[in-house]
């Protein structure tokens, strides 16, 4: 694995700040969603490593969604190749809070192979998330 200095990490973090965008028809999802796709908001720009250092930033953005009444989220993981336990905790917590009172859901979009493997083989994560693929 490559080593990154703190300065490089901070520069990278500034360049890849999480962006919150409304989902558009440009993102076509394979399979059926439990809700109409125009009701989802999408979280993109997540760094390649979602770890204890940057997971709180993701948590803050997701909490902003909920405060604004958005409980149906697509989390774009296509460029994320590592998620630590803190990163998974943020995703599980977001899903639990979104599903409370049947208000919404958190779906994961295009996770990398390493992330998919963890989701399928770690007992506490198995069958917890709906994974959707985008059409290229």
Number of strands: 7
Class per helix and strand makeup: alpha/beta
Uncertain regions spanning at least 5 consecutive residues: 1-32
Number of domains: 1
| Helical proportion, percent range | 25-40%
- Estimate the global geometry from the Cα principal axes: globular
Query: What is the third-level CATH name, the topology?
Result: Transcription Regulator spoIIAA
Task: Give the SSE string.
Answer: HEEEHEEHEHE
The name of the CATH architecture is 2-Layer Sandwich
Strand-residue fraction? 15-25%
- Widest β-sheet, arrangement of strands: 1-2-4-6-7
Overall average pLDDT: 76
Give the topology, please.
Layout: H1 6-15, E1 19-22, E2 41-44, E3 49-50, H2 55-67, E4 72-76, E5 82-83, H3 85-99, E6 105-109, H4 113-121, E7 130-132
Parallel strand pairs: 2-4, 3-5, 4-6, 6-7
Antiparallel strand pairs: 1-2
Helix pairs in contact: 2-3
Q: What can you tell me about this protein's structure?
A:
The protein has 136 residues and is of the alpha/beta class. The chain has a single domain, classed as STAS domain (Transcription Regulator spoIIAA). Helix content is 35%, strand content 18%. The strands form two sheets. It has a five-stranded mixed beta sheet. It has a two-stranded parallel ribbon with strand order 3-5. The radius of gyration is 15 Å and the shape is globular. The chain starts with 5 loop residues before the first helix and ends with a strand. The N terminus is likely disordered.
């Amino acid at each position: 694995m490559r080593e990154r200095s703190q300065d490089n990490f901070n520069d990278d973090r500034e360049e890849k700040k999480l962006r919150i965008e409304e989902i558009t028809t440009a993102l076509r999802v394979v399979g059926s969603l439990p809700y109409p796709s125009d009701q989802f908001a999408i979280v993109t720009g997540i760094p390649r490593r979602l770890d204890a250092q940057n997971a709180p930033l993701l948590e803050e953005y997701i909490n902003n969604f909920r405060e604004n009444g958005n409980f149906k989220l697509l989390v774009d993981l296509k460029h994320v190749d590592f998620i630590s336990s803190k990163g998974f905790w943020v995703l599980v917590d977001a899903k639990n809070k979104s599903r409370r009172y049947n208000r919404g859901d958190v779906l994961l979009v295009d996770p990398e192979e390493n992330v998919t493997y963890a989701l399928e083989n770690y007992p506490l994560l198995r069958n917890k998330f709906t994974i959707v693929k985008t059409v290229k």
